[in-house]
Design brief:
By secondary structure, the chain is an alpha+beta fold. 30% of the residues lie in helices and 24% in strands. Strand 4 (129-137) and strand 5 (143-151) form a beta hairpin.
């Protein structure tokens, strides 16, 4: 599945999973820019994953959003939170930008797209990289917070390191 955001549609998700089972095939979901996806999946599988939050911050020219949320940005405006909420609600708004979050929601199957929380941030200072922050919460105060700076060109939807991550996650 080259664009995991499509899996936020529960009907499509279920149909693809059923077709995979019916034909004895596997759905491969690339992790893209998601750091620690296997750890998230292990915590999910052992029942220790309590919460998952992902923030993606990019220059406003790097977003491809549905609707007009970001039509009024100006250079130098700084940081603006565009959306904060469930990844289920975010994916249709930013299907080209949040595949990392969708891959995390697949890894965190017990939380799912509705339980995984995401935030997208427009930041005019981010001209050379995107920032992906992942916060994983487990039992008894366990918390992991990672920050990934993904080099990119101004206006690019994804960072340059994502292509290799995408390909290597399928190998």
């Amino acid at each position: 599945v080259g664009s995991p955001s499509a899996l936020s549609d529960p009907d499509l998700n279920q149909k693809l999973r059923q077709a995979s089972l019916h034909h004895g095939r596997t759905l491969y979901i690339p992790s893209g820019a998601l750091w620690g996806g296997q750890d998230i999946q292990r915590m999910n599988d052992t029942g220790t994953l309590k919460a998952l939050f992902i923030r993606m911050s990019k220059h406003p020219s790097c977003f491809r959003l549905t609707g007009d949320i970001l039509n009024d940005w100006t250079e130098g405006e700084g940081r603006r939170v565009l959306f904060r909420g469930s990844v289920a609600d975010l994916c249709p708004l930013a299907p080209n930008n949040v595949n990392t979050m969708a891959a995390a929601a697949v890894a965190a199957e017990t939380l799912g797209f509705k339980g995984v929380q995401g935030e997208i941030v427009s930041d005019t200072a981010l001209k050379d990289f995107h920032v992906v922050e992942v916060e994983v919460t487990g039992p008894d105060g366990f918390l992991v917070h990672t920050v990934r700076r993904n080099p990119t060109k101004l206006g690019a939807v994804t960072g340059s390191a994502t292509y290799n991550s995408f390909w290597n996650s399928l190998l």
